[in-house]
């Protein structure tokens, strides 16, 4: 049997016993829940004991032997985390590291190492196998990770926590120019492999979004600010990507070849999927019409057709025409030969 399947089975077995708390579970119950033989359960229990997990067996009032986990053995470990919680954190480190932005990823790795130090060596070796059975492919990371970005993050966090005004130098992607901004930092948001600063800009009287890798420097000012408006709990709630704007109804039809893939995912909380015959589906969204939405539609090529709004139909058609113009003219079929 593959090692991955064995590790997952033993992890599940440990969770079953932990969830039963002091009551414990019999070997027959564990075998039934795991869909394996009692002989396999006995081997798994032995492996977990050898790894250092504080398992013990006791005889119940009915005369049957039950297996339980000694929660007292790890009481107070790692700021009061239970053994199950500590193992879950250790198990998830590969996924969490993949999703975390660089400045926090290094701190997170150090924190997880400290938590892991509370585990006995045999238990750590067992848990080291767990991340191998779950993999995560992160979004492409933005350039600019390093000490300079770490320093910018630290200053911005200080500004947010203490409502201090800040000034930043920022290189605009659209104009290519560098400008000095006075702003009130509100939030750092992680999306699509990068960090973004959401800040109120008094010059514009509005909240603006700044990509962290394009911030050249951050200076904290002594002046304080009072937040002008509350941000929604979710970052960029009306966009399929990184954008702020007013949502509006959008309808896109997908051909049968893409229908299952589209319908099986939640692209946005507002989406409604409706079959329209021939295996096709129509997706209705309430989102802002922005570049991330256009890139999403264009990514399906000929399998997607925008129905509404009209200006989005025109924008997609124009981009498809411009893309086609970049390729040599294709010759039609040669009808001269028999």
- The proportion of residues in beta strands is 15-25%
Q: Can you list the strand order of the major beta sheet?
A: 6-5-4-3-7
Q: What is the element string, with H for helices and E for strands?
A: HHHEEHHHHHEEEEEEHEEHEH
Q: How much helicity do the residues have?
A: 25-40%
Largest sheet: 5 strands, antiparallel
Counting DSSP E segments of at least 2 residues, the number of strands comes to 11
Radius of gyration: 28 Å
What gap, in angstroms, lies between the N and C termini?
60 Å
Number of helices: 11
SS-based structural class? alpha+beta
**pLDDT under 50 segments (min length 5)?**
none
CATH architectural grouping of the largest domain = Orthogonal Bundle
- The number of domains: 3
- The CATH first-level class of the largest domain comes to Mainly Alpha
């Amino acid at each position: 049997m593959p090692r991955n399947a064995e590790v997952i089975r033993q992890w599940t077995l440990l969770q079953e016993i932990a969830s039963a708390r002091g009551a414990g579970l019999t070997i027959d119950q564990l075998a039934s829940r795991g869909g394996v033989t009692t002989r396999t359960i006995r081997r798994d229990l032995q492996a977990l004991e050898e790894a250092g997990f504080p398992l013990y067996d006791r005889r119940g009032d009915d005369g049957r032997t039950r297996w339980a986990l000694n929660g007292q053995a790890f009481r107070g470990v790692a700021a009061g985390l239970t053994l199950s919680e500590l193992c879950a954190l250790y198990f998830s480190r590969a996924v969490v590291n993949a999703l975390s932005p660089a400045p926090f990823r290094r701190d997170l790795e150090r924190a997880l190492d400290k938590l892991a130090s509370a585990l006995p060596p045999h238990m750590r070796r067992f848990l080291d196998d767990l991340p191998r059975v779950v993999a995560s492919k992160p979004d492409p990371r933005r350039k600019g990770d390093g000490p300079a970005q770490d320093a910018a993050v630290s200053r911005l966090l200080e500004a947010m926590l203490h409502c201090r005004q800040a000034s930043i130098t920022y290189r605009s992607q659209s104009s290519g120019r560098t400008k000095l901004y006075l702003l009130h930092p509100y939030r750092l948001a992680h999306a699509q492999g990068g960090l973004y600063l959401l800040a109120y800009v008094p010059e514009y009287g509005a909240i603006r979004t700044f990509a962290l890798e394009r911030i050249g420097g951050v200076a904290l000012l002594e002046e304080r600010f009072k937040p002008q408006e509350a941000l929604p709990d979710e970052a960029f709630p009306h966009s399929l990507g990184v954008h702020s704007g007013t949502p509006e109804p959008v309808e896109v039809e997908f051909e049968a070849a893409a229908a299952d893939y589209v319908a099986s995912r939640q692209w946005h909380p507002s989406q409604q999927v409706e079959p329209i015959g021939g295996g096709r589906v129509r997706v209705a969204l309430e989102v802002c019409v922005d570049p991330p939405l256009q890139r999403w539609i264009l990514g399906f090529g000929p399998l997607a057709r925008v129905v509404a709004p009209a200006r989005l139909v025109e924008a997609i058609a124009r981009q498809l025409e411009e893309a086609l113009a970049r390729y040599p003219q294709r010759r039609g079929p040669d009808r001269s030969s028999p």
